[in-house]
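Practice problem: predict the structure.
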Amino acid sequence: MMRGLTRALLATREENKATLPLRIPLAMIFVAHGAQKLFGWFGGHGLDATIEGFESLGISPGLTKLAATTEFLGGLGVLTGFLTRPAALGIATVMAVATAKVHWQHGFFVNWGNQPGRGHGIEATMALAGMALSLVISGGGALSVDAALTHAKPEEKEESGESTAKRGQETLCA
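Answer:
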């Protein structure tokens, strides 16, 4: 049972190269934002200030720590393509909460002019959630740890009968 669950979480199409240009920017964004919240890196204020800010939104310190950790570790998971689906699901969940708790009240568009008293709308959180959800569906794809862990060596495929079945199919199509 656990082996099947692990394979399902890691499953990806090794030949799918379209996920890489999606994974890299999404990962960079979330590693950076998670590091701001957790460690105060990249101009962030650190965990204590993050907890204080999230409490003003009605989010408990425990959930704040979970969100910040999800951003940082989820970003690392997406970057390396390790446990891509659960990492991306965590990111999408954080973006859903950010949309509901912060951005929805400000409409659709990002506040590009930084008008005082007006926050950013849902535009960016929706785009980031969409990127993450596409990785939940597809997995890590090519050049991911998930692909390296789940794709059998040719001799293992032969033992499982997969190569034999493929040869039979190729013969029928020839």
